[in-house]
Amino acid sequence: MSILSDESRYQLLKLLEEKPDLSQREMASALGISLGKVNFCLKALISIGWIKAGNFSRNPDKKAYVYLLTLKGIEEKGKVTLRFLARKQEEYELLKKEISELKNEVKSCR
Fold first, then answer.
1. Whether pTM exceeds 0.85
2. How many domains does one find in the chain?
3. Per-residue pLDDT for 1 more than 70?
């Protein structure tokens, strides 16, 4: 799944967990990526066992799928979430430092 950054992987797995019945087109729109990329990623996630796809048995549109995270997928989502959180915390600390430096610069200009 190196085609996706940790942030994109986190967002895709989170979206699948929250809304497993979204169409691929809806996923692409929600994630801001192409439909082809969503299709490629879903196939990759299925092949590595992170999700499984199944039809809605009562849905009149027999092409509609539901994408469910497997136990392996839930575990990977946890790992990706921890990596994503660590990166965001690091970015936050750097931003706080930069803001502090800018405030000091503004004070010295007065």
1. no
2. 1
3. no
